Amino acid sequence: MTEMPTVDLLPLKGSRCDQCDNVAYPVSRGCQRCGAEAMRPIDLGRRGTVWGFTVQRFAPKSPPYVPPAEGFTPFAVGYVELPEGVKVEAILDCDDPVELEGQVAVELVATHPVPRFALAPTQES
Amino acid sequence: MTDVSIIGAGLSPFGRQPGISGREMAVTAIRTALDDAKLAWQDVQVAFGGSDGAGLADTLVADLGLTGIPFTNVKNGCATGGSALVSAINAIRSGQAQVALAVGFDKHPRGAFDPRPEEWGLDAGFGEAGLMVTTQFFGIKIARYMREHGISERTLARVAAKAYRNGVLNPNAWRREAISEDTILAADMVNDPLTRYMFCSPGEGGAAVIVASEDVAREAGRRPVQLLSVAARTRQFGSFEVFAPAIQGTGTPSSVSADASAAAFAAAGVRPDEIDVAQLQDTESGAEVMHLAECGFVEHGDQEELIAAGETEIGGELPVNTDGGCIANGEPIGASGLRQVHEVVTQLRGEAGDRQVPGSPRLGFTHVYGAPGISACTVLGV
Ligand SMILES: [Zn+2]
After folding, report:
1. Where are the alpha helices (DSSP H) in chain B?
2. What ipTM does this complex have?
3. Nearest-CA residue of chain A relative to B129?
């Protein structure tokens, strides 16, 4: 699966509730926990851990799916738990889905059309 | 709540029926339920019903007779039948009517459901990236659950194999061929760890239930089943649902099925361990595994042993989805919730034929779950 450039990448944007501190993604107008409207935009950072995932084995229906130019290949999709507590749905780059087992650390590599994460570089490198 | 009974239940055939519309299936189900109740359409005083994509229920009067009754359309996804039933029950309890109808039907085309991101309040990019796929949610949820609670892939296969086996015993089921656990495990992977044979398919069918006041239920010749409780809920904060760009909150996600089932058990004054026969939403076999715990029948993780011991089979301690569930009957969204009620009514009356639960079951439970985080449960008794 393709490597994505990490340069100049903006962090994910979410919202934090002024009333109860709940963190939402994407940017929200109302708080799902307390109903307050006082949601303040925040950066959600770029690092997280894999909370859960599956593999999309067949090509989703087009439209709306836009397959890559080289054609569909299975991809991993799941939720990444961010330090703020919210888990964000994302495409997960990997060579083999087994690499994603065990709450591994991942790093944001793209934000559009949906968040995309790849295995984080190891500590030594 | 002991003042409302089911006095009639009916189904149309389930599965592909070329040339027969969803509305026709609904009419078949209603006429079958009326015959079962020994009533005529003219006896129904109020009606509620709907489909997800097969038309408006209130237009069915064109085929049933224009009696002038109030007929409310319901469109509530997988909870359409459950919501219609709640409304029908409330009509009896309030004294508005003595006899009320709940009906649900659908006729979905082949293949996956076809949701549009905009209708779900999502960015178009969600669809372009390939995330508008309902089966991904089920794969992610059960994969995490299996790691956390020690559920094996064999257990997923056992649940699916049971559904097909029960379908063989059910003359009205769509899938009526047994499939072995090994074949289920070896089939094409859809979304890991779920293979093709572990999922239900969008299907066709209609289901209808007639509820009545105590006075009507007591009349000679009736075979009433008491509606001990019904509860419908939407998701609370922190839940994990299909097409969710995020799961908010920390810790284990909340469960709308846990909320609805707990409310239904509390209102009925019945404990889960008293239930003799249950219907649990089995969109895929992992859902049945998780719903066993979410609805309070077992602790998380204990399903592995329970299912291996055969306790959810027709002859087991807690028979689940005795008619083959959604896996063997398909998923006509509007009809599934009332199909479940029909099956439990049939079991409690002792009329389920080859698939009858032995030992004269007295208490039954039904549970539907669906997008975007809704659940409806009933407790029934004789
Ligand atoms: Zn808040």
Report:
1. 22-37, 61-64, 80-93, 124-128, 134-149, 153-169, 181-186, 214-217, 256-268, 285-294, 303-308, 325-329, 333-348
2. 0.92
3. A65
